[in-house]
Amino acid sequence: MRLAKLTLAVAAAALAMAISLAQAAEPLRIGVEGAYPPFSWKEADGTLKGFDIDIAMALCNRMGRECELVEQDWDGIIPALLARKYDAIIASMSITEERKKRVDFTKKYYNTPARFVAAADTGMEPTPEGMKGKTVGTQRGTIHQCYMEKVFPDTELRLYATQEEVFLDLNAGRIDASISDSIQAKEGFLATEDGEGYDFLGGVQYLRECHGDGAGIAVRKGEDELREALTQAIQEIRADGTYQQINDRYFDFDVYGATE
Amino acid sequence: MAEERAPSLLESITEFSENASPLDFMVILEHWDLFAEGLWMTTNLVVLALLIGGCLSIPLAVARANRTPILNQIIWGYVYVFRGTPLLVQLYLIYYGLGQFEAVRDSILWPVLRDPWWCALIAFTLNTAAYTTEIFRGSIEAVPFGEVEAAKACGMPRLKRLQRVILPSAFRRSLPAYSNEVIFMLHGSVVASTVTIVDILGAGRELNAKYYLAYEGFIAAAVLYMILVYFISRGFKFWEKKWFAHLRPREDAEAEAKQPGAAAPQTALVR
Q: Which of A127, B127, B172, B249 is the most buried (most CB within 10 A)?
């Protein structure tokens, strides 16, 4: 009897080990976007580059797991996670209450504020009254869409599949302003040739309900082991200087934001 | 009383829809106005494009069928370009492509090209006109020579011949092919949602993006397209019956009105 129990225990332990080994061997698939410079973009040769991509690689290194990047349009990035096309999303996704209903988040890995961008000489007031009847573009399904619908209900909102298209249309003069992440707007548009004659309009736009607590890594609900491993890895790369190294490739300040 | 009341019917349906049902249908119903707006947008874009494109295609088809020199080659080129490239590419070129040029942005056309709705209408119209031109050209060429000859023998001048004999006969002949074009145009119109227009698919995408859903918005959109296609095919059925009435044996035509199905074999033969 005791022997039988022991055998069972050994078998169970072996099985658990086999499973964990299989898990370790299986590459961790990470969903990324690829149209959100400088956080993620695609080089001419098709390779993915950017802050999100480097962070993803550093986290995988830290956790000692092989990783596979899966490119996914923003529109379907959460549905594809739920459909198990990948196991985690590292795509500058803000941690918001609405999203927490569908997925779980790690602690933040960076936090930068949202701001409007418009022609430098627009003369438009960045207030709900000042932007009444104006047209603002943003990416569909983002914190910025939520913010505009809640705070600027009288402004016409145009929704795009990528933030790059928003800036294309801002440049073409089809919209009066864009709202997006301020760092993304600066590096991805204002600092480029196309961004000439454009500037930030007003200061930081923030509504806790929409903007949440910075960008985190999303995993499927209930996958606590992976979520905790990722959170721990974020803290470890913060501590050992890897984060700083990656940060300095893209920014001249710390995008992590205030330490909690 | 308020504290202990049982959940109302609406609440329990919502609860079931959100948690138990594989399809959260309540979220679709809650946003019916979004889909109504999308339905209106799709319908007005497609109907206007078909009307304008259809009118454009008639003279183009006549010129092609008559092999009018120079015009024939130009129209052939136009048709080739618009049938040879995907509608999405055409719309992108008009919307994002033209908007890149300062000359276009400074021109008097910009107020029109600035608006995504106009860009979509232009792309759809040019696209459907190209396809319809080919459909009409084929059926004009297929008008039996005897009919034309008879009209000539009656002393009808060229234009009268076209108006009274050739075009009516050609329209009739092209009806089945044209019904396909109408349905393809409806389905092709989904590309409007890629240039910020909230059409039926755009409404579905907006719903999906708002609640991070995978398919609810698409299913609602699919159902709406299916309903539209149902009405389109019913409409064409009705027209075919009316226009092809002369091809059916007379007594059957009357009998069929009372007894549907009796004339079915004949209808099948006619097709």
A: B127
